[in-house]
Design goal:
By secondary structure, the protein is mainly alpha-helical. Helices cover 65% and strands 3% of the residues. The chain has three helices and two strands; from the N terminus they run H-E-E-H-H. A hairpin with a 2-residue loop joins strand 1 and strand 2. 12% of the residues are buried.
């Protein structure tokens, strides 16, 4: 059972990685700049103007252009971490229900739930840190 669940989570993670890596590539066609997938904004969010991706000069230089892309990717990763946390909370609850009072299984379920909550706190703190950096370097109005 553990191997099946671990393999399922691995396949899901790899599928999401491939999907998010290649699924939101800008085709520079109409309506592509404003789209999102499962609430994930595209990595080029904040870099569109008139349904095309702008040049680095239009956003204040190559450094700002690269920072916007990096912060967009970090935002996607933190959102993915939040989704994974919910998945592990559900898995921990599932383990807890199936433990049927056995101390070893109950302890493992509690540890899973505890680690999921710690991961959620870390993801929230990381999101806060990224938003702070965005405001400090002045990219807050760019749609990041």
């Amino acid at each position: 059972m553990k191997k099946v669940l671990a393999n399922t989570l691995l396949v899901l993670a790899l599928s999401c990685t491939v999907l998010f890596s290649f699924g939101n590539q800008p085709a520079l066609a109409a309506d592509d700049c404003g789209k999102s997938f499962l609430t994930f904004k595209p990595w080029f969010n904040g870099l569109c103007e008139n349904d095309t991706i702008v040049t680095p000069d239009a956003v204040g230089g190559i450094a700002t252009f690269v920072w916007i892309i990096i912060l967009n990717i970090l935002a996607i990763l933190f959102q993915l971490a939040g989704y994974l946390t919910v998945g592990f909370l559900i898995y921990g609850g599932y383990q807890y229900v199936l433990a049927r009072g056995q101390p070893g299984h109950l302890e493992k379920a509690k540890k899973t739930i505890q680690n999921a909550i710690i991961g959620l706190v870390i993801a929230i703190m990381a999101t806060f840190a990224v938003n702070t950096v965005v405001n400090i370097i002045g990219l807050g109005g760019s749609g990041v």
